[in-house]
Amino acid sequence: MRLKLVIFDVDGTLVDSQGLIIEAMNFAFEGEGLAPPSREDTLSIVGLSLDVAMFKLLPEADAALRARLVDGYKQGYMQRRAETGVAQSSPFFSGARDVLERLRAQDDVLLGVATGKSRRGLDKLIDGHGLLGMFVTTQVADDHPSKPHPSMITTALAETGVDARDAVMIGDTSYDMEMAAAAGVAGIGVGWGYHARDALGAAHRIVEDFAALENALTQIWEVQP
User: Fold this and answer.
1) What is the DSSP code (8-state) at residue 197?
2) Whose C-alpha in 85, 127, 173, 177 is 20 to 30 A from the C-alpha of 114?
3) Quick check: is 166 catalytic?
4) d(CA 161, CA 189)
5) Main-chain phi, psi angles of 217, to 5 degrees
6) Using one digit for the tens of pLDDT, what is the confidence trace for 20-55?
7) Is the full-model pTM beyond 0.85?
8) Which string of b and e fits 165-176 if b means at least 16 CB within 10 Å?
9) Band of pLDDT at residue 1, cut at 50, 70 and 90
10) Catalytic residue among 11, 16, 166, 172, which?
11) Residue 41 is a catalytic residue
12) Helices 63-84 and 18-31, interaxial angle, to 10°?
């Protein structure tokens, strides 16, 4: 039996945390007396490590200011999450949990995560949604270069012993699909996330809802030698 690995992005793919992300970014910028980025600009950097995200949003700023914005974002994020709770601030997209449960029940499928979240942030989300034990490998921004560098995926493959041809990355951003391509694994883009569909050009397939995801996985694995 050949093991397969399904690696999920988190924000914009499994959970809809855009309100929390936007509020945290606004908090950070307003705390420095700056006009916050537009909603579109903030969502465009979801998935990047925070230091890279702040550089993308404010490339002309000095390193000290960007570091303060990172700290302000973290503070705003944690405060808002504490006020509302994980389930309300980062709810599952429709069908997400059911698909996770069905995939985990398959003997030849392992589940993983590759996210721009910190370890602390991912642990809070896993605990808040009761997902302990769901993922056998969890790759976070603390331990890797920012997406789209392939380090998160190559580490997940090494930890699970799964060959790249048997792994699939599922995500909502161009960074996820570019990371998958760089690691030599198939990428499935999702149409409900934070990047426009036409930004997912590196994806092998794009699905519009979780109901279509399992079939897309089957189609990818059926053509693998």
Assistant:
1) G
2) 85
3) no
4) 24
5) -60, -45
6) 999 999 999 999 999 999 999 999 999 999 999 999
7) yes
8) ebbbbbbbbbbb
9) confident
10) 11
11) no
12) 130
